[in-house]
Automatic annotation (TrEMBL):
InterPro entries: ADH-like_C, ADH-like_N, ER, GroES-like_sf, NAD(P)-bd_dom_sf, Quin_OxRdtase/zeta-crystal_CS, Zn-ADH-like_protein. It comes from Nocardioides baekrokdamisoli. SMART domains: PKS_ER. PANTHER family: QUINONE OXIDOREDUCTASE-LIKE PROTEIN 2, SHORT-CHAIN DEHYDROGENASE/REDUCTASE. This is NADPH:quinone oxidoreductase.
Amino acid sequence: MRAAQVITLDGPAAIEIREVEEPSAATVFGEQCVVDVHAVGVAFPDLLLSKGEYQMKPEPPFTLGTDYAGVIRSAPADSGFKPGDRVAGVGLGGAAEVAGSSAAMLFPLPDSLSFEKAAAMPMNYLTAQFALKTRAGIQPGETVLIHGAAGGVGTATIQVAKGYGARSIAVVSTDEKAEVAARAGTDEVIRVEEFRDRARSLGVDVVMDVVGGDLFTDSLRALAPFGRLLVVGFVGGEIPELKINRLLLSNIDARGVNWGGYTFVRPGYMRAQWDELLPMMEAGVIDPPIGDVLPLESISQALIDLEERRTVAKTVLTLGR
């Protein structure tokens, strides 16, 4: 089968499309599900994995693909899945024509979701759900401000916030990204160049920050009393520093969001998250915005575009099925 593989840890340009053996249902840990992959979501962890910079560090060669969707080819009798079931998957190895996975890392798909949209979901939407519900304790009627709102986690946060009855404000850098955030359902859009001037007057309850960088302090200023700033990532490249007296003086919190570190050691947690999101999918509140749809062979360029912040919405790779 074809698979997008990391051979050397030299970044996305060094990824190769190779012919490799298909995964078997039998593993040293017992039987696993085998999935015929239809679509793969381009995700930030794949970029880090290609450089050896992710928290999980598999030895090359290995197959990329942390988000994917397809159809069950075979499954253990006690897995809850059967051949023909449509699923989304998260983990590693999805950027191939066939993927092997434990049932715990697979999720059932509503018929209303295409494989392309499903491949845009697992990591981004489970991260957004964990951030808003578990870390922020989001309540109906609260307001969430989202940096990097046109990216995959950003658009997911807009929609999950709406599913919980919250209002969203999207911070974006271009007209194109403003359109993506609006299409995702945000209630208000702010251009990044006006955010600093408006921050003190916003009084939001939650800030979702995947960017980091020099707007961090202004994000704290944007919080109302008892507000929560969620530290999700640093795609802007700079890790900001926090003077903790700001938290004391304003009665606000800064909270870390490490979805992977929390969920991967808690069997069943991800499926519980997915089950909470399913009604939002079925109601159409969750409808992932898709950017470019490209063949698997375009994975290197797609990850380079992601690294250089040219990506709008979620890029999806297809396997030609």
